[in-house]
Fold this protein.
Amino acid sequence: MPELPEVQTVVDGLRKTIIGKEIIQCEVIRSSIIQGNDEQFVKEVQNTVFQSIDRRGKYILLTLSSGKSIVTHLRMTGKFIYVKSANEKSKYERVIFRLKNSFNLVFHDVRCFGTIELVDNLQKSEKLKKIGWEPWDKRLTAETLQRELKKRSIPIKSALLDQSIIAGIGNIYASEILFDCQINPKRRCKSLNKKHLKKILESTRKILSLAMEHNGTSISDYRRVDDKTGEFQNFLKVYGKKDKPCVRCRNPIKKEIISQRSTFLCSKCQK
DNA sequence: AGCGGAACCTGTCGGC
DNA sequence: TGCCGACAGGTTCCGC
């Protein structure tokens, strides 16, 4: 479900609501969500305070007063909801953090792909080590990208989804980015020159920034911490627009499967 | 090493 | 109405 703009929106929401709040109790309803021993997890997070919240790629990092950090990934349907503890329960509550102010931070996840892990040190986390460039890193240039992609035979769309190259792009924004820079998602990485890669980087930054300004895209599951939807779905140009006219050339938008995922494009203006 | 495809889990939607 | 397959903002594992 959530890509970088949605994850960043969740991080912003969590910063406003839970920093400085103490966890007085933690209840794990679905233990498969917790990586490692869930009893140990509960023991270690209880009676600590949320100190800072950050994002790395699509991971949310919650650092506690103990110095340890919770590393969590929403995968397809995970969400954090901040509610009064008296509110009615949902069937899909998987982990509940009960706070001292009588609010709960609830990890809600229909499909249970989401993960929550407690780590001693963020710098040593094996998962985070595998994550590639943050999109706005100054060191990420067309030259850098070309070095990483020049020998790759995969379609550019698959490369954009690979979190070890650029972090944070998912299936919706990959289609939107390639439409914006007019590059066909099936094009092999090695066929792209520096100019193409420069355009891809510019579109990546432009689309992700714009989506963040609109609090992300809500198509079905994704919600903000206060349960509101994002609004960027109203600005999508190709994702989910099969057979609708291209906003640039009126040619009908096509849907194709690339690396097992639906991909939307205009075959006339994306070359 | 790099690539493609299956698997993880649960729900919804469209067609017959 | 009921059943069945396809599909869903993601990642990881396995075999070639």
The beta strands of chain A are 23-28, 50-56, 59-64, 69-73, 78-84, 93-99, 103-109, 115-119, 254-258, 261-265.
